[in-house]
Specification:
With 464 residues, the protein is mainly α. It contains eight helices and no strands. 19% of the residues are buried.
């Protein structure tokens, strides 16, 4: 009995030694011959020593009571711990709910601010895009004006070359490099310079148009990206805990390596708008250059055309005046020829009329030479007859000389008449070329507004 009591005392477990039966499951208690090992057999723990295993049977009542007290204490402590845990969990839930709601509200507010920023930049992009679109449309019109103006210079160039070719058909001394021809050559050179200037301006316009379209494309792409971002952020703002297509997306709480920074985001759009404004301002300046270029070139062409017109008109007037003078001289020459011809006839008649007196005088001399002897005297009649014959022969010789001179003058006058008639024909041909061909063709010269690139009337129908 004492041995059993001693053995039982060896297995006594108190609160002071072990606070919880769960500790006994880990450490066990000291037995007589060996340690009590964890041997779950029918929910009991038995000594590990073979002998003690058969001598050990039951716990005593004190152990039983202490065991119950341990259970009471353990349950009370567990309840307190559970209550503390519940309170802590409740506080944690409340705090996390508040923090989650505050964070969600802050995120929603930030998303709203982000939407406002996107809307603001979208408005700026839309405004700049509208301005750029309008500028592109106006620049396209100016480009067409340049193309039309270049096409319009082909007509004046053809007219000037045709006028030069026609004037090459002038004859003899009328084929002269006069003021009209010099002005026509200046006009061809001016048209070539104008075409070069307009072609360079047209190429600049095409380049500027491409730059404007590129800037507009960047604005549209930026606007499209912001529209998509606005749509996505609007959906995110409208998402609620109890509505919306919300899903758990694992691995999404990470920064994307392709994301931009807010400063870069704003700078990107600001640069697009700034570059677009620069291109638009450059386009506006270029349109001013185009307008002044078209105005100056059309005015220069019109002024040169007026100078050509005036020089041709003056040349026609000069040629007509020369023709009138030639015709006057021709008329006088013809009249003089008629008078010379009359004089020739009169001289011939006078020479013929001198034949009878000469015959009479010579006959008288012949008759008187037949006087006999002393009667053949050199009396006064003899002297006068000899003087008369000599006088008549001298007169005939003078008349014949004058007749030869008159006939020579007649031949010269005839030659002059032919030359005058030919020269009048040449002058009339020149007048016909300048007036009926050149001046008439130059009435098809395009108007100033047509040379400026405006197509208000078909080519050749509008005149100034």
């Amino acid at each position: 009995l004492f041995k059993m009591m001693g053995d039982t005392a060896a297995f006594t477990v108190t609160k002071e030694n072990i606070e919880d039966d769960r500790a006994l499951l880990k450490t066990g208690v000291i037995g007589t011959g060996s340690e009590v090992e964890k041997q779950p057999i029918l929910d009991h723990y038995i000594p590990a020593h073979p002998v003690d295993r058969y001598t050990f049977k039951k716990w005593n009542t004190d152990d039983w009571a202490r065991h119950n007290e341990n259970k009471f204490f353990q349950s009370e402590r567990d309840r307190d711990a559970a209550a503390n845990t519940r309170e802590e969990a409740k506080q944690l839930m409340n705090s996390t709910q508040t923090r989650t709601n505050a964070t969600q509200n802050e995120v929603t507010e930030r998303l709203g601010e982000r939407l406002q920023n996107i809307n603001l930049w979208k408005f700026e992009l839309e405004k700049t895009t509208r301005d750029m679109t309008a500028e592109i449309e106006v620049l396209v019109v100016e480009k067409r004006r340049l193309e039309y103006a270049i096409q319009a210079t082909e007509g004046p160039l053809h007219i000037a070359r045709d006028c030069l070719a026609n004037r090459q058909r002038r004859i003899d001394y009328d084929l002269v490099q006069d003021a009209a021809e010099k002005e026509l050559l200046k006009e061809i050179e001016l048209i070539s310079q104008v075409q070069d200037t307009l072609s360079r301006t047209l190429q600049q316009t095409k380049d500027q148009l491409e730059a404007c379209k590129e800037a507009k494309h960047r604005l549209e792409m930026d606007w499209s990206d912001k529209y998509s971002a606005q749509h996505l952020d609007s959906r995110s703002v409208n998402l609620k805990n109890n509505r919306g297509n919300i899903q758990r997306k694992s691995g999404k709480a990470l920064y994307n390596v392709t994301e931009s920074l807010p400063g870069d985001w704003q700078t990107f759009t600001d640069n697009n708008i700034r570059l677009a404004e620069q291109e638009r301002e450059a386009s506006i300046r270029l349109r001013g250059v185009i307008g002044s270029t078209l105005s100056n070139t059309s005015q220069d062409l019109r002024e040169q055309a007026d100078r050509v017109q005036q020089s041709l008109t003056d040349r026609v007037a000069e040629t007509e005046e020369a023709t009138r003078k030639l015709e006057t001289n021709l008329k006088k020459t013809v009249d003089e020829i008629a008078q010379v011809e009359t004089m020739i006839r009169n001289l011939k008649d006078a020479i013929w009329e001198k034949d009878a007196p000469n015959k009479v005088a010579q006959t008288r001399l012949t008759n008187r030479h037949q006087r006999p002897n002393i009667e053949q005297c050199r009396d006064e009649p003899a002297h006068r007859l000899i003087e008369e014959v000599t006088e008549i022969e001298d007169t005939v010789r003078q008349l014949e000389t004058k007749l030869e001179q008159s006939e020579q003058r007649q031949r010269e006058l005839q030659s002059t008449r032919l030359a005058l008639e030919k020269e009048i024909s040449v002058k009339k041909t020149s007048v016909s070329i300048d007036r009926d061909r050149c001046l008439r063709e130059r009435t098809c010269f395009p108007a100033t507004n047509h040379l400026s690139g405006y197509r208000t009337a078909p080519f050749g129908l509008e005149q100034t």
